[in-house]
Write a structure and sequence with these properties.
Elements: E1 15-17, E2 20-22, H1 40-64, H2 72-75, H3 83-96, E3 100-106, E4 109-113, H4 120-129, E5 139-144, H5 155-166
Antiparallel strand pairs: 1-2, 3-4, 3-5
Length: 170
């Protein structure tokens, strides 16, 4: 009788989202649900509406302020990096990357520096920032003169970062 096993008992640890349980299962392997709770589809609809509202408010800002190009997919992956890692990589690129420039705001005054400070891209960005530079804190923004700044992340890191951000894990 010493080798007799205890009967299995249902798991009791669950994470709750809305009114339904995620991750728990009963002895028969089915997911436990709270039939009186909120349906998971309602959570998905709510999240979609929040995302849509946020996107529309950004679009309105873009239109009202004459922003020429907005592509969140260009910056979205970088939200997966810690601020320290991101700053370290940007500083390294700013010091070592040819075809780059820096937009510098000091005491509300804007200037462009670096190898490509006289490029059309640098001047266009400065023209966008100049109208509100007086309200910005002192800052340095480093940029490449190339179309896409994906050098901070390798392609595998870019793909994983987009996945994490899209899933809301960052």
């Amino acid at each position: 009788m010493a080798n007799m096993r205890k009967p299995l008992t249902p798991r009791t640890k669950h994470s709750h989202q809305g009114g339904y349980k995620v991750g728990g299962s009963s002895l028969n392997g089915l997911i436990e649900t709270n039939m009186d709770g909120k349906h998971p589809l309602l959570d998905l609809i709510e999240k979609g509406e929040q995302k849509w509202t946020k996107m529309i408010s950004r679009w309105k800002f873009v239109k009202e302020n004459g922003v020429i190009l907005v592509d969140e997919r260009d910056i979205e992956p970088y939200f997966a990096l810690s601020p320290r890692t991101f700053q370290s990589r940007v500083q390294d690129l700013a010091a070592n990357l040819p075809f780059s420039f820096s937009l510098v705001v000091t005491n509300g005054s804007l200037s462009l520096v670096g190898e490509r400070a006289n490029s059309i891209r640098a001047k266009d960005i400065a023209d966008l920032v100049e109208p509100f530079a007086q309200w910005l804190p002192d800052l340095q923004m480093h940029a490449s003169d190339h179309d896409r700044g994906n050098i901070v992340l390798g392609q595998d890191q870019l793909d994983k970062a987009l996945e994490l951000v899209t899933q809301g894990e960052c």
